[in-house]
Design a protein that fits this description.
The protein is built from 4 helices and 10 strands, in the order βαβααβββαβββββ. It has helices at about 35-45, 60-65, 70-75, 110-115; strands spanning about 10-15, 50-55, 80, 90-95, 105, 120-125, 130-135, 140, 145, 150-155. The strands form 3 sheets. It has a 6-stranded mixed sheet with strand order 3-2-1-6-10-9, sandwiched between helices. It has a two-stranded antiparallel sheet with strand order 4-5. Strands 7-8 form a two-stranded antiparallel sheet. A hairpin with a 5-residue loop joins strand 7 (about 130-135) and strand 8. The two termini are about 15 Å apart.
Length: about 160
């Protein structure tokens, strides 16, 4: 088990914690930065080539990233941290197996790994529940999904 069950050597990994609120960790409005740091470390220990952390925030993204402690924690573990606050970061994708939602917009960083057949991407999403949404507000349920393009893991 462990992270090696999900992360393969040379894989690009996207960690998408909840960084939505301009709140300090003690207020528990976001994913705990210690958890994000540990996930990033474990991804690298499992052989990840690159780990990127981002979220589409509700409050000002720069304040959220800083005050949540997640930016510093992710960077200290070796991850790249990037913004996700602009609609232009998201690209439309078809969801051929979707039951109700047939299209979604996905952050270009996640898609960049899917575009190359020589590379796969793992997206780890840390949320408080198994319900999430894309940047256009469409809600969907999260389960562990696996296919030939990569894996999305909901924690």
């Amino acid at each position: 088990g462990g992270m090696k069950q999900f992360v393969k050597p040379g894989q690009k990994v996207v960690v998408k914690p909840n960084i939505g609120w301009d709140k300090v960790p003690e207020l528990a409005g976001n994913t705990n930065p210690k958890l994000v740091e540990e996930i990033v470390k474990q991804c690298f220990a499992a052989g990840a080539k690159e780990v990127t952390v981002f979220d589409h925030t509700c409050d000002d993204w720069q304040k959220c990233y800083k005050n949540s402690g997640i930016e510093a924690a992710a960077k200290s573990a070796g991850a790249k941290v990037m913004p996700a606050h602009l609609e232009s970061y998201y690209k439309p994708v078809d969801l051929p197996n979707g039951k109700k939602m047939k299209k979604a917009k996905v952050h270009e960083n996640s898609l960049s790994a899917y575009c190359s057949s020589a590379c796969t991407c793992l997206t780890i999403t840390c949320t408080c529940s198994s319900t999430s949404h894309d940047p256009t507000g469409n809600y969907f349920q999260g389960d562990v999904k696996a296919d030939s393009a990569g894996t999305i893991v909901w924690l």
